[in-house]
Amino acid sequence: MQHNDDSSLSSIEQDIRASFVARKRLFIGLITGTSLLVCLVLVLLWVVPYVGLSELHPAAPWVWGAIIAVGIGLIGWSSLAMVLNILFKRPILFSKRLRGLTIKLFLPVMTLVGRAVGLSKEKIRSSFIKVNNELVLSEGKRYAPEKVLMLMPHCLQNSMCKYRLTYNVENCKRCGLCPIAGLLELRDRYGVHLTVATGGTIARRIVVQTRPKVIIAVACERDLASGIQDTYPLPVYGVLNERPHGPCLDTQVSLQRTEWALRRFVRSEALPAEKVFPEALPDPGRRKPKPDSSVAAG
């Protein structure tokens, strides 16, 4: 992907890359361990029934062994390709076709392996999300604004707000009490879709209705990981929310990071010349709200 040489977003990009490095090592370790474990299981599947298979036909053990060998080869090749993609930040050995294997097969097994060695689910999911983002970015694709969907969780909305945004984000009065106002500014400037979902079922319905080519999703580790799995093969770039009040209550999101993602996926000719939220400014998601007594429920 050709990155926009935008100096005011450079430190955001450096922060994103720096946070990726640590999780990259964790992911590489987990995917390597998981691959070895799966290969060991496949070997056992050949060794254990070896004697019984020979009674069916003399060649049966070797036919079964060949099938197992192909499986081991595919697992080894996919793991190597994935690791090389992560290290070199570009598709290698057809690795861009392997994102689905990572999502559908490796993540569940990696979670089990990680838990067995004392890693938390959140840490494993965070590592997976970071690597998924890197794989999506490495494809280097840009899209028309109308094909980009920003999918937000309802917990970004101020918990005292009386307006329902799930089915119509236009109900937002843009008071500044939560990040939704800033996200609407991004939507208006970049011409992309913006929706708010209360859960996976509604999120899937939104995806079917809007038919995007790429999704920029904000959520916690659990919801992002499951959302990436549910929407495959549609590429999803995940932005973790911030939870100063605990999970699912008045969460926050960095509008600068969200805009950074937009500028990586929207076609260059459709990008506005000026950014909505320059990095030098305080995070607009936490700016001082305008007084508006009509927004909060009495």
Characterization of this structure:
It is a single chain. With 298 residues, the protein is an alpha/beta fold. It folds into 2 domains: 13-90; 116-270, Rossmann fold. Helix content is 52%, strand content 7%. It has helices at 10-47, 50-56, 60-88, 99-116, 121-138, 180-190, 200-210, 221-231, 255-265; strands spanning 148-153, 193-197, 214-219, 236-240. α8 (221-231) links the parallel β3 and β4 (236-240). α1 (10-47) runs antiparallel to α3, α1 packs across α5 (121-138) and α4 (99-116) packs antiparallel against α5. The longest helix has 38 residues, at 10-47. It starts with 9 loop residues before the first helix and ends in a 33-residue tail after the last helix. Residues 1-9 and 280-298 have low confidence and may be disordered.
Structural classification: alpha/beta
CATH architectural group of the largest domain: 3-Layer(aba) Sandwich
The residue ranges in which pLDDT falls below 50 over 5 or more consecutive positions are 1-9, 280-298
Q: Percent range for helical residues?
A: 40-55%
Biggest sheet, strands in spatial order? 2-1-3-4
Please indicate the percent range of residues in DSSP E strands (runs of 2 or more): 5-15%
Fill in the CATH topology of the largest domain. Rossmann fold
Termini distance? 49 Å
**Beta strands, count:** 4
CATH class of the largest domain: Alpha Beta
**H/E series:** HHHHHEHEHEHEH
Largest sheet: 4 strands, parallel
Mean pLDDT: 79
- Which value, in Å, is the CA radius of gyration? 22 Å
How many distinct domains?
A: 2
Number of helices: 9
Shape designation = elongated
